[in-house]
């Protein structure tokens, strides 16, 4: 009998526990229903064009804020029927566009953004919105044009400079990327991608001094950032300072022991620094971590050529060709294989 009562008590406690977790969600749902009802009542009570326009705008904002984009679009279109003033019409076009983006109806969204731009052709913010829209779609040429138009109106628009820097970096136009990234000043640590893009752009254009300044500043907050240590090592490789490169690649590999790329670069620094036997061991470790990476097989072929092991060099060059995913790596593998055959 006691067990029966105990089970009932436990069941009741469990139900109360579940109910306590569900109550906040139930309350939130009730609150939204009540708010929608209140806004609908405001529309019914409104009289005159101005009141009706304001009531429809209020419920449109409510729908968009709660992710109900279909209802938001319909409500915003109602607002337009009441001929809002120019500034309000601009905001409505923008918000319809954002709601359409939420529904992934991108072409329609763009049309509303363009309507907004026609109202205020000298506003930088709408040109920025359209530029970001094109960027999201991967239409870099159109994004570039629109972002440059925005900067022509407001040269201090930091977001536009950042986006243009990203576009030019992806297009390997490193000098132009840097010209926009520099407008941001020294990026905060939260902008890691900008730091890396700037550092790589400096490295590729031969300005390793600037690259190292940026990277060491970024490293100050975290001495164990494997990615920053790796990029510092790459800059020392560019300067042919193989001892320093090896030091930073080693730190990167220790900070991230399962990072095959760090081990690969460490092997390369050891090879170029005149220690092919240490390079061979490190490259083998990189291959263990990432056996299907063609560049590691290519490096191992180079190492075996350096230690006069033609058979192993040829085997790794052929393996690199089989694993290669780009014509550049395939071509390098073929050249290395021919060199091993004729060595």
Q: What's the N-to-C terminus distance?
A: 91 Å
The number of distinct β-strands equals: 0
Strand content of the residues, in percent?
under 5%
Q: In this structure, how is the largest beta sheet organized?
A: none
- Helical residues, percent: over 70%
Helix and strand content put the structural class at mainly alpha
Give the SSE order as H and E letters. HHHHHHHHHHHHHHHHHH
Taking Cα atoms only, what radius of gyration do you get, to the nearest Å?
A: 30 Å
Q: Which residues form runs of ≥5 with pLDDT under 50?
A: none
Instruction: Report the mean per-residue pLDDT as an integer.
Output: 87
Oligomer: single chain
Tally of DSSP helical segments: 18
Shape summary: elongated
Summarize the SSE layout with pairings.
Elements: H1 2-45, H2 49-65, H3 69-81, H4 86-102, H5 106-119, H6 124-136, H7 140-153, H8 158-170, H9 174-181, H10 192-204, H11 208-219, H12 226-238, H13 242-255, H14 260-272, H15 276-289, H16 294-306, H17 310-323, H18 327-341
Helix pairs in contact: 1-2, 2-3, 3-4, 4-5, 5-6, 6-7, 6-8, 7-8, 8-9, 9-10, 10-11, 10-12, 11-12, 12-13, 13-14, 14-15, 14-16, 15-16, 16-17, 16-18, 17-18
